[in-house]
Amino acid sequence: QVQLVESGGGLVQPGGSLRLSCAASGNIFSAYTMGWYRQAPGTQCELVAYITSGGRPNYADSVKGRFTVSRDNVKNMVYLQMSSLKPEDTAVYYCYARYYNTFWGQGTQVTVSS
Predict the structure, then answer these.
(1) CA 91, chain centre distance (Å)
(2) What would the 3-class secondary structure string for 2-64 be?
(3) Exposure check for the chain: N or C terminus, fewer CB within 10 A?
């Protein structure tokens, strides 16, 4: 069982930056693929980015060049650095951990608005 707790969401102006953090419990964190989904009202959940157990990142086309996913296997943390934010990035962002099963955090709201 893995428990995930996100933090770092909030309100930011277009063009601004935010860093989301996800703290994970469990003693095999390094074996998990970790990542982020998001869901805006009235839309399907979208995979934003993930990072493999080997440290290889992958991104949705919509965030390439603007978002960076990273992990700290000592602290059991995964991060999503978001820059050049756009109003269309507004969503609830969910951290997940995947090995044989998938575990989810509770979500954190990101609102990009002037």
Answers:
(1) 11
(2) CCEEEECCEEECCCCCEEEEEEECCCCHHHCEEEEEEECCCCCCEEEEEECCCCCEEECCCCC
(3) N
DSSP secondary structure letter of residue 100 = S
Structure-token pair, residue 76 = 């059991």
Question: Contact, 94 vs 5, CB < 8 A?
Answer: no
Both tokens of 88, joined, read 């269309």
In tens digits, what is the pLDDT along the chain, a chain of 114 residues? 889 999 999 999 999 999 999 999 977 788 899 999 999 989 999 999 999 999 999 999 999 999 999 999 999 999 999 999 999 999 999 999 999 899 999 999 999 999
Helix (H) / strand (E) element for 103: namely strand 102-104
Amino acid symbol at 69: V
Distance separating alpha carbons of residues 59 and 48, to the nearest angstrom: 6
Q: Which residue has the tokens 């650095």?
A: 81
Which residues face 20 on adjacent strands?
A: 80
